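Allow me, if you will, to draw on your knowledge of protein folds for a short while. I have a record of one protein: its chain in single-letter code and its fold written as discrete structure tokens. The full record is reproduced below for your convenience:
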Amino acid sequence: MKVTLIGAGPGDAELMTIKGWNRLKQADVVLYDRLVGEDIISMIPETVEKICVGKHAGKHPVSQEEIGSLLISKAKQGLNVVRLKGGDPFVFGRGGEELEILYENNIPFEVIPGVSSSIAAGVYAGIPLTHRDYSSSLHILTGHVKKNGQLDIDFKALAGFNGTLIILMGIAALENICTGFLEAGMDRQTPAAIIENATLKTQRKFIGTLETLFELSKQNNLVAPSVVIIGAVCALSEKLSTPLHRN
């Protein structure tokens, strides 16, 4: 009896770790998220029970409480349970919350990290998130809006942050995000980018500025999952994109 929490990476099946694949092969049941790549799901043996517990923005067909209950009940049946999450389970993946539930119920667990889309999106778009001439630090944020409709972003503090800002789950609130940084005094011409479906064959990349980014998203009908990157390093995208990563 054990639950293994595995980061499936940003979508490209080849970016999932060998250790993750090995544990996946040993599973009796897999609970997977919406953002786990279809190629990965298709390679799970047919004998394994597969349960989709994915969430969409504002739509949670399986609540977090139900997911916790499923993990506990399946594990107590003596099964090897895999909880498969897109990206890395500890980067805005609620992995910590799920492990706390397992700990409270005396269920052994293991965690295997995954490549976060916050990092992979920059690589696949030719954007080095750090660069000695442009940015010596980075900050990863969530653009997810709270139940009260407010963003949990300190725009004033981050507007003066001389580094790279990476925003996950921010496409729905992009107008408010851009406006918040502009009103906080960030330079309107700050290079910025949106990468939709990062690492997949359907990846699209758009480069603009903080001032133009929201209009770019509207004109091109960008949808989730999309990663927003704000910072001087975005200006390097065209120069550093490799043929493999070009759209």
Observations:
- The first helix runs from residue 18 to 25.
- The chain has a mean pLDDT of 93.
